[in-house]
Each structure stands twice: as C-alpha cells, then as structure tokens.
Design brief:
173 residues; alpha+beta; Arc Repressor Mutant, subunit A; Alpha-Beta Plaits; 2 domains; four-stranded antiparallel beta sheet; two-stranded antiparallel sheet; 8 helices; elongated
Length: 173
C-alpha cells in the first residue's frame, strides 16, 4: 500500500506533462497499468477527505503531504491488520496490561480491550489482560493509537495464581 501511495503522490506532485511522463516511465510496470485518470481522482478524494494537503512550491510543482488526519487514517489500516507472531520458546513470564480508562473515553476503552483480545490476550477481568510473550511494542502502539497512554499500565510477572489455567489456555503445557 505504501508503494502504491508513493507512486500516486509522485505522479500527482508534478504539474507539467513532461515531468509526469518522466515520473511515470520510472515507476514499476504494475503502476503503468493503472489508469491515470483514476490516480487523479484518488488524489482529489484524499484531498477532499483531508487525508492529504497540497502545497504549491517553486518550479510550478505541488507538494502533496499527508495530514495528521491522514496519518491516523493510515494507522487505522495498520491496526486492523495487526497480528502477533509468538516466538518459538516461551520465557516463562506473563505480560499484563491493566487499564482504568474513564467513562468519557468508553469507545477507546472498549476498542483497546477488543483489539487486545483479538491479538490473543486472555481477559482476567474487564480491565486486566494477560499474555505469555513480550508484546510491549504492540501495546505501546495501541495505547498511542487510542490516545490512552496515561490510563494504561504494562508489566511483566514471573508467576500468577491461576498459572495452570493460563498455560492451558495458551497451550504452553
């Protein structure tokens, strides 16, 4: 997707037909099969939706930049495709995510819980989830995406009282 977006932005950044043809000829063959009219419509749609902004520069060119709204929109696609690939061996430690997100942020709280469960976390309580593998970077990404950093805690436990049940759930026996 990023390669496609880069190609779209590169082709749309130049106003002169000569520059567009030069850029178009440097793109991979797959991009040459895409209708230029469609690319132009796509860029205009991104602009209308405020995903990109167009800034006039010197040399009769327009620079296309991704807006903050566009970055959040792109992150949405990343978060929907997010998966966790466990390592070959378990290190014997439990990772725990605890949160106390206010009621006024209910939607973010529910979406965070839902995403953690989809990634394979086990729900001990509504706001306490556990996982057997290191997942700090994934949790950090999620709390930044949902903008709940100050309400979420991540920790690592060497043991937990219901360990046998958790080992069975994660097939670690």
């Amino acid at each position: 997707m990023l390669l496609f977006l880069l190609g779209v932005l590169t082709a749309g950044a130049a106003r002169s037909p000569r520059k567009i043809n030069m850029l178009w000829s440097s793109l991979p063959k797959e991009f040459k099969k895409i209708d230029r009219k469609y690319l132009s419509q796509l860029i205009q749609e991104f602009y209308r939706d405020r995903l990109v902004d167009m800034i006039d520069t010197s040399d009769e060119e327009t620079q296309i930049v991704i807006t903050e709204h566009g970055k959040l929109h792109a992150m949405r696609f990343k978060i929907d495709d997010m998966k966790f690939l466990p390592p070959k061996y378990w290190d014997g430690k439990w990772r725990i995510v605890v949160f106390d997100i206010p009621e006024k942020m209910r939607k973010a709280r529910n979406e965070l819980r839902h995403k953690l469960k989809n990634l394979g976390f086990y729900e001990l309580q509504k706001s306490v989830l556990v996982f057997p593998y290191d997942c700090k970077s994934e949790v950090d990404f999620l709390v930044e995406f949902f903008r709940v950093r100050s309400y979420v805690r991540y920790g690592c436990l060497e043991s937990i009282t219901n360990e046998a049940e958790l080992k069975q759930h994660f097939d670690l026996t």
